[in-house]
Amino acid sequence: MAAGGERPRRLPQADDFGSARNGLSFATAAGPRRSKNARGAAATGWIGPPMSIAVAMATYNGARFLPAQLASLSAQTRPPAELVACDDGSRDDTPAILDHFARTAPFPVRVERKSQRLGYRGNFLKAAGMCRAPLIAFCDQDDVWEPTKLERVAAPFSDPATLLVTHAARLMGPDDMPGARFDTAPGLGEDDEGIVNAPWPLVYGFAMTFRRTLLAHSDLWHGSVSDWAPDENIGHDRWILFLSAALGRFVRLPDELVRYRQHDANAFGAAPAPTAPPPVVARLRALRMERRWIDRRARAAADRLRVLRSLADRVGGAERLHRLTRRFAAFEARLTLRRKVYDDADLAARARAFAALVHGGDYRDHDPWRFPRRKAAKDAMIALWGPPSA
Description:
CATH superfamily of the largest domain: Spore Coat Polysaccharide Biosynthesis Protein SpsA, Chain A
CATH class of the largest domain: Alpha Beta
Distance between the termini: 51 Å
Number of helices: 9
Order of helices and strands: EEHEHEHEEHEEEHEHHHH
Radius of gyration: 23 Å
Number of strands: 10
């Protein structure tokens, strides 16, 4: 990464490698493309030493930037135990680039192709489920890893309680020019009780390395509920963070270990500001959005409780898990009361729900497990005048 006015080093290009959906199962699929270095590895069980790291990559129409990412994997000071790349039905040269890399890579490579789309959530978890090393690093198709990434993220796993390691990043444009520092887990931390400090913490999967043992609970992901995307499962990265927070500890490294590329084909990116509607329309729209927000969060909180209780049945009564369960149970109860304020047709029922929220101290700033004070005035209006029409 260039600093102090130095000229940025050249990034590998496509020429460096040559030109070139449905039921989801986490078991290793038969017949993936393998590198010549993979043939000696056992088809079952883990590969490599206890601290070895497999790379789980999800690809889809990524030919433009994929070669640079693959080159950065080859340049790691601590080589990965293997790369598992799951392609989600690309129509460009992505499969050809992966196949060529599988024949020439200095470590085992397996390529799995899907004719039907899984979507990025399922595709990443599919790739992770095929990995055979005890540690797994998610990998986007269009970034560039710093050479010491795997070496740096491996160190915290010497503590058996560490289940997840994240790190910072440096933004990069499509022209390979570096940009600003990027926080991949803004605000993520633990509160005074030693549990994750927010119900919906934001974390970016490309910066995550985790223990493969977390995948033993992948069956609970099926039927899970995203807290922001209707009719979607929880994101692969939030899922792994949630399990890590419930079952162990996570570590945040300050190191910038990935150049996170921004371009016009990102799955996530900045959108132009929409044209502002008239004030009355904006207020009505805001009330309807609030109602949908409450409903989504209430369903997601109930789903997190389902998972936490299932984990408790499986792994026993760890105090950390019990604390997080109690926190989500209280949060789900608060969301249920707010949903009653917005949904109940009976004025008295709405008023009782709002009074319970006020009496419980549930309008409190700077507490992500409660609601900002400014929401109290909006909820009082809804309790008095009734919910907005759908």
